[in-house]
Write a structure and sequence with these properties.
205 residues, alpha/beta, UDP N-Acetylglucosamine Acyltransferase, domain 1, eight-stranded mixed beta sheet, 2 helices, 13% helix, binds coenzyme A
């Protein structure tokens, strides 16, 4: 763990990450990189350059990608990994994390989330506000579970999938990679094809 944290991306998701980082109280300095040169400061934190400047900070800073879009976040994190960056896990202090939970680098877990025992969460995931993930889940890399998602026990969510706000997944189900599940949707069967699914129960659109 280094004394300084750089967040790549100073929009909504980046700001929530900054808020979590401040509450974790382990970095002396928190700053952003953002490609919008007109932004100089956010939440009292400096924007110290663009994403192209990241290599200047590799040796001295922890670096996390604060971009909500799964494929963009993946692309940037993979580049950081290639460069040998130190990529932390951020967990808001007001979460409940069970026994034998594994969390990959670059993953962010937001306020009010509950991750129950024996669940594995991959790299670069977003476990958003108030989401619950029950026991024995497998969340693959670069997944986003939006605010208020609830996954029952033994659910698998494939790489890069995005579950919309308030969606529910019943127990023992697999959601394949690159699915989008709409806001408020209820998944009661495996989703075996990548695509967009909405409704109660979900249908593919
Ligand atoms: C599912 C979703 C990704 C689809 O977006 P899209 O590809 O732009 O699709 P469209 O808005 O064109 O909608 C396609 C159809 O699905 C319906 N639909 C879209 N989202 C729906 C939802 N959540 N529940 C039910 N129906 C939905 C639309 O009414 C439309 O139906 P129609 O063809 O009969 O008119 C989006 O609607 C959604 O729910 N996003 C989640 C947002 C979210 O959770 N954000 C949190 C960020 S932290």
């Amino acid at each position: 763990m280094r004394e300084k944290l750089i967040i790549i991306g100073a929009s909504g998701h980046g700001k929530v990450i900054a808020d979590i980082a401040m509450r974790m109280n382990i970095w002396k300095i928190i700053a952003f990189l953002d490609d919008n040169e007109s932004i100089k400061s956010i939440m009292g934190l400096d924007v110290i350059g663009s994403s192209e400047d990241v290599s200047k900070h590799l040796d001295s800073c922890d670096i996390i990608v604060g971009i909500g879009n799964n494929s963009i976040r993946e692309k940037i994190q993979l580049r950081l990994e290639t460069l040998g960056a130190s990529i932390p896990v951020l967990v808001h202090p007001k979460t409940v994390i069970g026994e034998q939970v594994k969390i990959g680098s670059g993953t962010v877990i937001m306020a009010g989330a509950v991750v129950n025992c024996c669940t594995t969460i991959g790299r670069g995931c977003i476990i958003n506000t108030g989401t619950t993930i029950d026991h024995d889940n497998m969340i693959e890399d670069f997944v986003h579970l939006s605010p208020g998602v609830h996954l029952a026990g033994t659910v698998k969510v494939g790489k890069g999938s995005w579950l919309g706000v308030g969606s529910l997944v019943s127990n023992n189900l697999n959601i394949t990679s690159d699915c989008k599940v709409g806001a408020g949707a209820v998944v009661v069967k495996d989703l075996t094809e990548p695509g967009t699914y909405v409704g109660v129960p979900v249908r593919r659109v």
